[in-house]
Amino acid sequence: MTHFEPEAKIFACSQSKELAERIAKNYGIELGNVTLSHYSDGEFQPSFEESIRGIRVFLICSTFPSADNLMELLLMIDAAKRASARHITAVIPYFGLARQDRKDKPRVPIGAKLVAKMLETAGATRVMTMDLHADQIQGFFEKPVDHLYASTIFLPYVESLGLENLTIASPDMGGSKRAYAYAKYLGSEVVVCYKQRKKANVIETMELIGDVTGRNVILVDDMVDTGGTLAKAADVMMEKGALSVRAICTHAILSGNALDKIEASSLTELIVTDSIPLKRQSDKIRVLSCASLFADVMHMVQNNNSISNKFIM
Fold this sequence. Notes:
By secondary structure, the protein is of the alpha/beta class. It has two domains: 8-149 and 291-308, Rossmann fold (3-Layer(aba) Sandwich), CATH 3.40.50; 151-288, Rossmann fold (3-Layer(aba) Sandwich), CATH 3.40.50.2020. 29% of the residues lie in helices and 27% in strands. The chain contains eight helices and 14 strands. It has helices spanning 17-27, 68-82, 111-122, 151-161, 176-186, 228-239, 258-264, 291-302, and strands at residues 8-12, 34-38, 44-48, 56-60, 87-92, 126-130, 145-148, 166-170, 189-199, 202-209, 216-224, 244-252, 269-273, 285-288. The strands form three sheets. It has a seven-stranded mixed β-sheet, with helices on both faces. Strand 5 (87-92), helix 3 (111-122) and strand 6 form a beta-alpha-beta unit.
């Protein structure tokens, strides 16, 4: 008797709909129909407008601020559970609150752990995400987590640039592991920026560990928020004799006047994914879509195939 695996359907939270449409197109199906009803006080309620009984649903939602994005995802998971979906996979290209992965001072929450528990309590049976701010967040879940790396998107692009005298740089000590992984694959040198902060998002001093004289530098990080670190690092490296400075950042949060900082900086180019929609276009920003990566892995998960060939590093 032939085993029949029920079909899958893809649905999107309202703020991630454009990315979800690209993922669905790469997957080969239409995006599912879900509506969002609003009450006059701002409360909202998602509703699946088609049957999802007995199938796998992929719910696509990047949980960047505001908190409504996370709440919408939680409500959709709960609705799918109550509608008898067979599997509920939360596809979270950008996993918000990931910077709160530990107690770095007294009397603060571990927000990433809280989010993990909320997703599981709502009914998610699997989580799929990309370039977590801290790898150990996978351990906050009791359900399977597919942690994808945007390096599978970025590295082919870097190779296509054909840069000579290439140096990979980490904008801080915490990102050195990621920088070394890129450098190992590309066979390049590594430098690290050492920065001290007065407070969150405000840099007091920055020093460079390593030599960038006559080098084409690519900074590698998981996210760009205010843009201050990247702008400062690019300026320091150009002062130290770098030929050019580019930056690769998976998640383009770009809060406040970050775009203005990037455009005014010494950066030649900022390369990001579409895990978060850009607030506005910029000549200095190149967006590489993560849609095909997620669609391919979703196919593999649906068909119970290994996803190990999707990990370049």
